Amino acid sequence: MSFEPYGERAVNTAVALVNSLVLSDGIDGLPDLDACAELLGEHGWIVDDLTSADLKFLRALRPRLRFAFEAQDERKVVAHLNRLLSECEVLPQLTDHDGAWHFHYARPGATLAQRVFVTSLMALLLVVRDRGSDRLRICATDGCANALFDTTKNHSRRFCDARTCANRAHTAAYRRRQRVKAIASDG
Ligand SMILES: [Zn+2]
Ligand SMILES: [Zn+2]
Q1: CB 3.0–4.6 Å: which of 6, 26, 77, 173 could bond 133 by disulfide?
Q2: Ligand closest to the CA atom of residue 164
Q3: CA of 53 to the centre of ligand 1 (A)
Q4: What is the C-alpha R_g of the chain?
Q5: Is residue 1 scored above 50 in pLDDT?
Q6: 104 C-alpha vs ligand 1 centroid, how far in Å?
Q7: Domain range for 51
Q8: CATH of the domain at 27
Q9: Which ligand has the shortest distance to the CA of 157?
Q10: For the Zinc finger CGNR domain, which residue ranges apply (predicted)?
């Protein structure tokens, strides 16, 4: 599969941005520049030139990215992401500045927020192209509205990374293993 080297990182950036919108305790996870620098830094972005304009842009972007995880209809997801992409300052350029050929999609000199925007959109569109839009979903836990990116082979991820939800995921995996054992010993 021709996934970009930065693809998964960029999808995870989008997931983290969406999930900062409203945390389960009702507090916004992207209140200020420090929080924004931390979130982007965790996903490999160099944040030296992060500005308050970037913060404002990324905060406003979150509900628009969220749609890609909420919508069930693949054509709607693609139309939405394509529409967002048409707002971007895109100029694809192949580069090997870090040793491996990869595309930079934002025009040279674009702001950090623009680069995050363009790169996330391209990564989300590549997920749809290569894996299908149902890889982008909302967590199955009642009362959890977090987005998730399902990279499992068998399409089995149902819960996000929040602590309570991750525990459920462990329990579900344990039950699955027990079931497989029971079936195996039946035979
Ligand atoms: Zn690069
Ligand atoms: Zn969750």
Answers
A1: 77
A2: 2
A3: 22
A4: 18
A5: no
A6: 6
A7: 7-139
A8: 1.10.3300.10
A9: 2
A10: 135-178
What is the structure's pLDDT at 6? 64
Q: Could you tell me the pTM of the whole model?
A: 0.86
Nearest one of 34, 66, 65 to 47, comparing CA atoms: 34
- Please state the separation of Cα 63 from the chain's center in Å: 13
Decide: helix, strand or coil at residue 138. strand
**Is residue 135 assigned to a domain?**
yes
Please indicate, yes or no, if residue 50 is contained in any of the structural domains. yes
Is residue 67 situated within a structural domain?
yes
* Residue indicated by tokens 């394509």: 82
173 domain-assigned: no
pLDDT in tens, 60-108: 999 999 999 999 999 999 999 999 999 998 999 999 988 889 889 999 8
Q: Find the 97 Cα to ligand 1 centroid distance in Å.
A: 6
Ligand nearest to the CA of 162: 2
Which residues contact residue 86 at a Cβ distance below 8 angstroms, ignoring those fewer than 6 apart? Answer: none
What integer best gives the mean pLDDT of the chain? 89
**Phi, psi at residue 162, to the nearest 5°?**
-55, 150
